[in-house]
Amino acid sequence: MHSKVVIIGSGPAAHTAAVYLARAELKPVLYEGFLANGIAAGGQLTTTTDVENYPGFPDGIGGAELMDNMRKQSERFGTEIITETVAKVDLSKRPFKYWNEYAEDKEPNTADTIIIATGASARRLGLEGEEKYWQNGISACAVCDGAVPIFRNKPLVVIGGGDSAAEEAMFLTKYGSHVVVLVRKEVLRASSIMAKRLMANKKVTVKFNTVGVEVKGDDRGLMSHMVIKDVKTGKEETMEANGLFYAVGHDPATALVKGQLDTDDEGYIITKPGTSYTNIEGVFAAGDVQDKRYRQAITSAGSGCIAALEAEKFLAEHEDDVQDGLEGEKGAEKGNSVVVPEYRSNPLL
Question: Could you give the residue numbers annotated as active site?
């Protein structure tokens, strides 16, 4: 099968790109994967209960419901959605080749352009009680979840010692009664200015040489306490905590393109600033797979739009080249009836 554009991913970036490309009548094919990277189609939002910071939903919306709506919108405009995982790609030349899982030894499918929107997964710690209380007190995104009612005026815990942990802890002081930061080592890895701000905040307590052991809950199924341990003495204690936020990093899903697309030292795809362009012409990246700073549904959707517009522009330019060649052979000149896409007049593109 050959396609003009293939999208690999199933989150907000992937579906936003699909909507734009389908409306441009480019017949995008979207591979949402079958438990790709251990996550159901729809990405990390499917593990989120309430999304309250996505525009257009004044009463909030469930993460899974939001992704179901995006999927329906993609299909409505003609996106072909395939519930298979792309296992291998060859980006050495166009058309690009790709193989689905369990079909690596068969003839490849091909595409003129590919948008990589495979996302990133928050690292978990595997604490006892983690699965039970995930999204019932445990989160990996303070900005996403910190303002929900179960955390307001409650004691909260952040695990991590870097800049992200410091930023999330200070953000949570707006909502929680007090924030405890657990740092495994004797010092913070955060920059000196961030560390000073954190230590100076009266609503924050930093516990060094301390790790989480177990999460406990109440009869409502919500987190209520946490068992922590001093790694030097081995002493354990149980503290009241209604929220636990992991700030121990994310793992971008870039194994598929490793060695072909340029990535940074953390594995995120490197794109030209302000664009979705990768180091290979015709391959674009959108969403959390190339964004280690914001990691929000709305920013992912925005980057999906950018990738779609840039893929459309790329395809149009190369189709023009082919058309010019054909018309040159016929000795014909282009008429004035050619429809120029709207983006062509946009100086940003």
Answer: 141, 144-145
Same fold, 2-121+250-330 and 124-246: yes
Homologous superfamily in CATH for domain 124-246 = FAD/NAD(P)-binding domain (3.50.50.60)
User: What pLDDT does residue 45 have?
Assistant: 76
The per-residue pLDDT for 333 is 39
Tens of pLDDT, residues 25-65: 999 999 998 765 556 676 777 766 678 889 999 998 988 89
pLDDT band at 292 (very low <50, low <70, confident <90, very high): confident
d(CA 101, CA 34): 9
Q: Where are the beta strands (DSSP E) in 191-312?
A: 204-208, 210-217, 223-230, 236-240, 243-246, 250-252, 283-285
Structural domain boundaries of the chain? Answer: 2-121+250-330, 124-246
The pTM assigned to this predicted structure is 0.76
Q: How far apart are CA 26 and CA 4, in angstroms?
A: 7
Residue 334 has pLDDT above 70, yes or no: no
Six token digits for residue 28? 């995008």
Residue type, 163: D
Q: What is the pLDDT of residue 328?
A: 44
Contact indicator for 28, 15 with CB cutoff of 8 Å: no
| DSSP assigned state of 113 | E
Structural domain 2-121+250-330, CATH architecture: 3-Layer(bba) Sandwich (3.50)
Measured CA to CA in angstroms, residue 142 lies from 82, 246, 279 at distances of 33, 9, 33
- How far apart are alpha carbons 278 and 24 in whole angstroms? 22
